[in-house]
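Shipment paperwork, digital attachment
Item: protein structure file
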Amino acid sequence: MKNTQKLHQKKDGLWATLFVGPHAILFVLFFLIPVVYGVYVSFTKWSLFNDPMWIGFKNYQELFFDRESIFHDQLIYGMSSTLIFVLFTVPLCILVPLFAAGMLLTQNKLRKVFQAIFYIPSMFAVSAVMLIFSFLLSKSYGPLQGWFHVDVNVTQTQPYAWIALVLVTVWWCIGQNLIIYIAALAGVPRDQIDAARIDGASNWRILRQIQLPNIQLPMIFTIITTTVLQFNVYGQPLMLTNGGPNNSTKVLLMSIQQNAFGSGIPAAGMASAQATILGATIIIVSAIELLILKLCQR
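Attachment content:
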């Protein structure tokens, strides 16, 4: 009997290795090794054309303390623009699909139709979405300018540039969270909701006291993943506003790409330092969010 159990355990371990092994190899090759090498490069001076030269913390000292350095300005203004983008898009990418999911659950006939309408934008690449809205918002030939008779270059005038970036991003991103919330809310025990309605509970009270506590794990998942996604913003400001007006929407990833692969002599070491700071910021913000969400569960 014991030999049979050991044989089954070995087989289970073998199957687990076969299934997990390829993913673990890909994770190490295409994520872990590049991340570790990127952190190493951040402590070097490297132009991509020669061997990295170790310089210690000089890149970080210049980024944080050298106010005359263009890289310092890129970090300050680029991170500020990134944080502004995250601050507005993350709550909207959580709340809009959450309330939309609650409304769609009451629509039996048209639910699938509206699910598809909300989800279809997320199937397109960011480049395709931004090209469409660049055309729609163009001052020269955009149809929206003609329809509303607005003589404003939306993508190059503040605050319209930020408003356009946020709204287009939310429209593009909410589909995936919507599907998750619909599935989560559909799994809430119906008898609890019916009992609350009999007791005279309002829709807001049902949402706050019954539905939200039952979908805490999906909420945590979507909040963390949405935060990470929005911190990595790049395509939207690059293609819609090109960082304008006056670099006010130029996010940090645009500067990182410019320093590593742009015109002139590449500063890959400095770009890696900026990327490392951005990655550390994402980890810290995500950890704070996770801590707050766990405290709210108690």
